Amino acid sequence: MTEDGNLQGRIESILFVAGEPVLIRDLARALRTEEKPLRKELERIRDDYDYNQRGFMLKIFGSRVQLATRPLYSDSVLRLLQPVQQQSLTQAAMETLAVVAYKQPVTRAEVEQIRGVKCDYSLQSLTVKGLIREVGRKDTIGRPILFGTTDEFLSHFGLSELSDLPPMPEAAPVEAENTEYSETEELIP
Predict the structure, then answer these.
(1) What is the CATH topology of the domain spanning 91-164?
(2) How many CB atoms lie within 10 A of CB 110?
(3) For residue 70, which of 97, 87, 52 has the smallest C-alpha distance?
(4) Mean pLDDT value of segment 91-120
(5) What is the Cα Rg of the chain in Å?
């Protein structure tokens, strides 16, 4: 059986029907092609969509690719669909996610030490949403679970890879109290 149509059309068809991110290796297998030339074609399609500001964009992140609507046109789409309410992440979940993203692989105890509060619920919520996952066990007493981000995390935040994360913000310096005293001043306990 021969493949009808051009490669770009076949890629678009598969990604449109899938709706969700597709592993590039699975896409290559379905298209009966090698991954390297497929990646080049995906990048060409992505660049063409971006240059022409098409309604669709091609998101390539990690080992996955997804056909998605361009955020530039989201207001128009939302006016039509009028979603009841977009599910967002709580402040606690965002803080937990930030710690996992920048410090991964990281254990629950390490996240809690950095945040200063319990984070069981946030870790569970982020796992259910597919933004983080178990990436192994730490080689220490109790063998605690190590968490890391997922390709869904990259997609959700519009990143191609973890190195695209902005630099970690520096902690604001704590202003020291005036500790200079003259020799004649006495310190009051």
Answers:
(1) Arc Repressor Mutant, subunit A (1.10.10)
(2) 17
(3) 52
(4) 92
(5) 24
The stretch 140-148 carries a mean pLDDT of 92
pTM of the model: 0.52
So what's the pLDDT on residue 173?
52
What per-residue confidence (pLDDT) applies to 180?
A: 43
pLDDT, mean of residues 149-162: 88
Residue boundaries of the structural domains of the chain: 7-80, 91-164
Fold of 7-80: Arc Repressor Mutant, subunit A (1.10.10)
Query: Are 139 and 163 contacting, i.e. CB atoms less than 8 angstroms apart?
Result: no
Question: Degrees (nearest 5) of the Cα angle 35, 41, 46?
Answer: 120
Q: What are phi and psi of 146, to 5 degrees?
A: -100, 135
Q: In what order do the strands lie in the sheet with 56-61?
A: 22-23, 64-69, 56-61
